[in-house]
């Protein structure tokens, strides 16, 4: 699971708005929306953001292990 919470913190520290990224840096609004929802974005987008914000990947995103899937019960066994 990926969280882009650090992106918003980094942008705030550097005084960069979503408007600036969309209108002046040509980051698409759909990519911004995907980042807000912690959805998949390409490594190209991550690289572009790091370049624009002059930061490292860890300043933009955090990777967490996926939660454990629920145990599967054996519904085929006969009593």
From TrEMBL:
Specify one Pfam family. HTH_26
Domain of life from the UniProt record: Bacteria
InterPro entries, sorted:
Cro/C1-type_HTH (IPR001387), Lambda_DNA-bd_dom_sf (IPR010982)
- MF-aspect GO terms: DNA binding
Which stretches make up the HTH cro/C1-type domain? 6-66
Database matches in SUPFAM superfamilies: lambda repressor-like DNA-binding domains (SSF47413)
- State the name under which the record lists this protein: Helix-turn-helix transcriptional regulator
- What is the organism of origin for this protein? Candidatus Lachnoclostridium pullistercoris
């Amino acid at each position: 699971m990926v969280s882009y919470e650090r992106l918003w913190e980094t942008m705030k520290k550097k005084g960069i708005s979503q408007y600036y990224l969309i209108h002046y840096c040509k980051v698409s609004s759909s990519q911004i929306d995907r980042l807000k929802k912690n959805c998949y974005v390409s490594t190209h987008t991550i690289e572009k953001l790091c370049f624009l914000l002059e930061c490292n990947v860890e300043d933009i995103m955090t990777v967490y292990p996926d939660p454990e899937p629920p145990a599967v019960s054996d519904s085929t066994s006969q009593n």
